[in-house]
């Protein structure tokens, strides 16, 4: 039995699938179950709908349909691009530049590449979480193969100046990738404008299904080795039978994003600002992340002397998250907040609220009340 009495404020982690997306997907698990590569009538019918879905994804990014490759999500897309570029590096450039606050999908792929001899530079960030473009100019050179800077940070919502980063990468002849996983559906993305070579995304972050995502590749960009070899699907760039229901759902969620983005922006921002202003009243509370360059659905806030883990447990059916990760039974503070200069203690006192179009004012008012009550309780007891 599904418990519907949750207040879900963990939308940077994953989102509820839009009912319109589910409706669109169902026929592709029942009557239109054909393999989109088959040349019979059912295959052709399925493929027609894959073409439409690809057009919808491309439209959201102002790209060409042929520039969209479907994968199981952002993690696979990131692995494909990084490892593929290194494997096919005909220009013999030997360096990757990324940032300390990237998602583990990027950082762990880089760690692996370092083990096989690739030179990786991890750029620091300012206290605001923004990168310093002067730092980039200091480290980039003719040796740089790829610069990878995320568009929106998953913990703080900080928006990086990707267009400016691309301009610098171009000056040195380096390729540019952006992880747009947290940006899609929240901010408008125009790949012609930000001019990146590669951009990755995951459907479940914007009310699409899990297990489907992909990447945009500029048709003029370097064509690298695929990660997955086999039946030659996706023009040989990603073999394996296409996840038809997933792709149909992804296409629909992109179409919905395009139609709703402006409307959702103002209503979500209103709720996030209400939450933020009310929680900042709590003594010592502070926001993590640049105030101006921050996406409107995320609030990362520290409550000094409060252990976020305890607060999260006590919030019970209010689903929020913190950035700490469990590695071999050791809980580590968020690498993002540490990179921004927070002490371990303050990082362990930080909580991320991430909102979506499904949140209501009543939910936010209830959350504010509960957070205030619990923090008061913790401060006046032995927990704090
Ligand atoms: N990049 C960012 C910024 C993310 O937030 C996530 C997921 O949390 C990923 C990459 C990986 O996405 P997925 O697990 O869907 O592959």
Structure description:
This protein has 2 domains: 7-16 and 261-380, Aspartate Aminotransferase, domain 1 (Alpha-Beta Complex); 19-256, Aspartate Aminotransferase, domain 2 (3-Layer(aba) Sandwich). The chain is built from 12 helices and 14 strands. The chain has helices spanning 19-25, 41-61, 74-87, 104-115, 133-139, 162-171, 191-194, 244-279, 308-315, 335-339, 344-347, 361-379; strands spanning 7-8, 68-71, 95-99, 119-123, 144-148, 175-179, 198-202, 213-217, 286-287, 298-302, 318-319, 325-327, 330-332, 350-354. A 7-stranded mixed beta sheet has the order 2-8-7-6-5-3-4, sandwiched between helices. The radius of gyration is 21 Å and the shape is globular. The chain starts with 6 loop residues before the first strand and ends in a 5-residue tail after the last helix. The structure holds pyridoxal-5'-phosphate. The site of pyridoxal-5'-phosphate has 13 residues, from helix 3.
Give a summary of the structure in a few sentences.
This protein is α/β, with parallel strands linked by helices and 384 residues long. The chain has helices at residues 19-25, 41-61, 74-87, 104-115, 133-139, 162-171, 191-194, 244-279, 308-315, 335-339, 344-347, 361-379, and strands at residues 7-8, 68-71, 95-99, 119-123, 144-148, 175-179, 198-202, 213-217, 286-287, 298-302, 318-319, 325-327, 330-332, 350-354.
Low-confidence stretches: none
Q: Which CATH architecture of the largest domain?
A: 3-Layer(aba) Sandwich
Strand order of the largest sheet: 2-8-7-6-5-3-4
- Share of residues in helices: 25-40%
Radius of gyration: 21 Å
CATH fold field value of the largest domain = Aspartate Aminotransferase, domain 2
List the ions, cofactors and other small molecules found in this model: pyridoxal-5'-phosphate
Instruction: Name the overall outline.
Output: globular
């Amino acid at each position: 039995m599904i418990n519907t009495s949750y207040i879900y404020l963990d939308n940077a982690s994953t989102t509820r699938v839009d009912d319109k997306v589910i409706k669109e997907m169902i026929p592709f698990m029942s009557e239109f179950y054909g393999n989109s590569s088959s040349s019979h009538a059912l295959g052709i019918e399925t493929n027609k709908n894959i073409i439409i879905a690809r057009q919808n994804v491309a439209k959201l990014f102002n790209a060409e349909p042929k520039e969209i490759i479907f994968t199981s999500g952002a993690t696979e897309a990131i692995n494909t691009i990084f490892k593929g570029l290194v494997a096919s590096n005909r220009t013999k450039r030997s360096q990757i530049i990324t940032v300390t606050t990237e998602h583990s999908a990027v950082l762990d792929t880089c760690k692996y590449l370092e083990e096989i001899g690739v030179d990786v530079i991890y750029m620091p960030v300012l206290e605001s979480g923004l990168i310093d473009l002067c730092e980039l100019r200091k480290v980039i050179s003719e040796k740089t193969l790829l610069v990878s800077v995320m568009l929106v940070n998953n913990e703080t919502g900080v928006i990086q100046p990707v267009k400016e980063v691309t301009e610098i990468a171009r000056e040195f002849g380096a390729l540019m990738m952006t992880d747009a996983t947290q940006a899609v559906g929240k901010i408008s993305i125009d790949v012609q404008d930000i001019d990146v070579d590669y951009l990755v995304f995951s459907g479940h972050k914007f009310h699409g299904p899990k297990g489907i995502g992909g990447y945009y590749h500029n048709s003029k960009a370097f064509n690298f080795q695929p990660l997955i070899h086999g039946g030659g699907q996706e023009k040989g760039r990603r073999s394996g039978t296409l996840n038809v229901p997933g792709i149909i759902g992804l296409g629909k969620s992109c179409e919905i994003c395009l139609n709703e983005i402006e409307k959702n922006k103002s209503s979500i921002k209103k709720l996030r600002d209400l939450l933020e202003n009310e929680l900042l009243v709590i003594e010592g509370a502070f926001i993590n992340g640049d105030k101006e360059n921050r996406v409107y659905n995320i609030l990362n806030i520290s409550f000094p002397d409060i252990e976020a883990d305890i607060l999260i447990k006590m919030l019970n059916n209010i689903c929020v998250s913190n950035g700490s990760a469990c590695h071999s039974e050791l809980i580590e503070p968020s690498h993002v907040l540490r990179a921004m200069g927070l002490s371990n203690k303050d990082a362990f006192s930080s909580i991320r609220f991430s909102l979506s179009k499904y949140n209501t004012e009543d939910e936010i008012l209830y959350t504010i009340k509960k957070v205030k009550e619990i923090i008061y309780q913790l401060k006046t007891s032995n927990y704090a």
